[in-house]
Amino acid sequence: MDRYVGNKTISQWVAAFPVLKKITAKEEVLWLNTCYEEKAPPQPGFTDFTVQEIIDADKRLQRFAPYIESVFPKTQKAHGQIESPLYLIPKMQTYLEKTCFLSIPGRLVLKADNELPISGSIKARGGIYEVLKIAEQLALDHGMLRETDNYADLANESFHQFFSQFSISVGSTGNLGLSIGIIGAKLGFRTVVHMSKDARQWKKDLLRQRGAEVREYDADYSVAVKEGRRQASLDSRCHFIDDEHSRDLFAGYATAGLRLKKQFDQMGLVVDDSHPLFVYLPCGVGGGPGGVTFGLKQAFGSHVHVFFAEPTHSPCFLLGLLTGLHDAVSVQDFQLDNQTAADGLAVPRASAFAGRASGHLISGCLTIDDERLFQLLKAFADEENIQIEPSAAAGGIGPVMLLQTTEGRRYLKEHHLINQMSGATHLIWATGGSMVPRKVWETYYKRAADNQ
Ligand SMILES: *Cc1c(COP(=O)(O)O)cnc(C)c1O
Predict the structure, then answer these.
(1) Ligand 1 within 6 A of CB of 281
(2) DSSP-based helix, strand, coil % in the chain, nearest 5
(3) Is 40 helix (H, G, I), strand (E, B) or coil?
(4) What are phi and psi of 79, to 5 degrees?
(5) Binding site membership of 126 for ligand 1 (Cβ less than 6 Å)
(6) What's the pLDDT at 252?
(7) Least confident of 198-202, 232-236, 425-429
């Protein structure tokens, strides 16, 4: 039986978009977004996301910086700003050139969100931001705080007591739960994390140790989120952080754009007509990379070209954009199983918000095989001495897909970039890894070594 997905049967979808044949066969693909640079039709609640929301988010994070600095000593050097370094990675560039048989003109850089303080992944941007926003709102509403106060006071017992009357909950494959659990519990909230079966044991252990409650599900991410959302709806003092719908998460992620521009300026990296910037972002539900993309477009305009990277078994964001159905299509609809070792990307269905708010800003999506993730993870360690988790390696294949596939070359041609490539910067966004216990990380490394 040929089932309907949206207004077409599966075979009609495949006939209309031949690339789906490769996608359903779990082959690696680069798909160019047909809606790129199209004006998105106005969709209230989605396409009205504004720069002002990013500016507000940035100011809020600045107000909280004294608090962050006082309770997370690792952020002292950066005065309470939660930010990651940017590295040139020439050895990785040579590695890709040698192992994939191509030349990568321009330079290769790594955005090391694997080193983000507090929770060691890109979720420290959105997740922590949303919790801080909730805390601020509650404290303002109850007359405990004014915006002009020194927020370091939030570390006091009186605030801890106050926040303990409220709870925050979230559904997660691991890293979002880690971010929200750590900051939520630190502020004093009762924090409940609903974990999908992909979540790693060490993440659950760490959360419990920090005082968060972990509820485990023998089901995938969509189920954990749905159940978390349902339980939270029964409690008026519980705020559910909804990764499938949240604007606040998106705003937190988007602050990365202007900050990255500052880092580029400091390192003397130029982005302009003859120096295009290509960014490769690992994608799960799309909120993280979508928010970052929104910020990048504010910072670099049409000179930045953003590609999302997903596992071949869970390309939910690609399917959402290609079909235009966003969260109304799952990878299972296309007979894919959502089984991947990239736990941060093991998501069967895209966010309802991200694709609508940022879909037109994304140049394309690529998919990557799990074995390749592990080889890249190993190469980052061998070549650059950088520890990342499997999900975070997904962007590593980006420059190869762009330069080596027919689709990639078509993109460069259509955007008049062929002659600019010697001035290009390729940025791989490493989205997580520094909190992975060494023993666990070594099993990842070993898997790569065994399969070489
Ligand atoms: C969550 C996550 C992503 C993707 O973020 P989404 O908002 O789910 O798209 C990428 N890498 C890692 C390591 C993550 O934890």
Answers:
(1) no
(2) 55, 15, 35
(3) coil
(4) 55, 40
(5) no
(6) 97
(7) 198-202
Nearest to 300 by CA among 267, 250, 249, 265: 265
Position 30 confidence tier, pLDDT thresholds 50, 70, 90: very high
User: Based on the domain organization, do 276 and 222 belong to the same domain?
Assistant: no
Nearest alpha carbon, ligand 1 atom 14? 344
Instruction: Determine whether 302 is exposed, middle or buried from the number of CB atoms within 10 Å of its CB (0-12, 13-18, 19+).
Output: exposed
- Give the structural domain span for 419: 4-47+78-118+248-450
389 Cα nearest atom in ligand 1: 13
Considering the domain architecture, whether residues 353 and 267 belong to the same structural domain is answered as yes
Rounded to whole angstroms, how far apart are CA atoms 176 and 217?
Answer: 16
Phi/psi at 418 (5° precision): -50, -45
- Measured distance CA(431)–CA(119) in Å, rounded: 11
Cα–Cα nearest to 130, from 88, 179, 96, 66: 179
pTM, two decimals, is: 0.97
Query: How are beta strands 30-32 and 364-368 bridged, if at all?
Result: antiparallel
> pLDDT of 156-212, one tens digit each?
999 999 999 999 999 998 899 999 999 999 999 999 999 988 889 999 999 999 999
> What CATH number has the domain bearing residue 265?
3.40.50.1100
Are residues 397 and 432 located together in one domain of the fold?
Answer: yes
Query: Is the minimum distance from the CB of 431 to ligand 1 under 6 angstroms?
Result: yes
pLDDT for the residue 445? 98
H or E element in which residue 170 lies: strand 167-172
Q: Are residues 226 and 256 in the same domain?
A: no
Distance CA 148, CA 134 (A): 17
Closest C-alpha residue for ligand 1 atom 15: 344
What's the gap in Å between 63 CA and the centre of ligand 1? 26
Whether the CB of 114 sits within 6 Å of ligand 1:
no
DSSP state of 426: E
Ligand 1 mutation target, pool 130, 244, 345, 368, most atoms within 8 A of CB? 345
With a 6 Å cutoff on the Cβ, whether 289 touches ligand 1 is yes
CA 433 to ligand 1: nearest atom: 13
* φ, ψ of residue 87 in degrees (nearest 5): -120, 145
Candidates 125, 391, 434: which one to mutate for ligand 1, based on the most atoms within 8 Å of Cβ? 391
- Assess contact for 246 and 225: CB atoms under 8 A: no
Task: Count how many domains the chain has.
Answer: 2
> Are 342 and 286 contacting, i.e. CB atoms less than 8 angstroms apart?
no
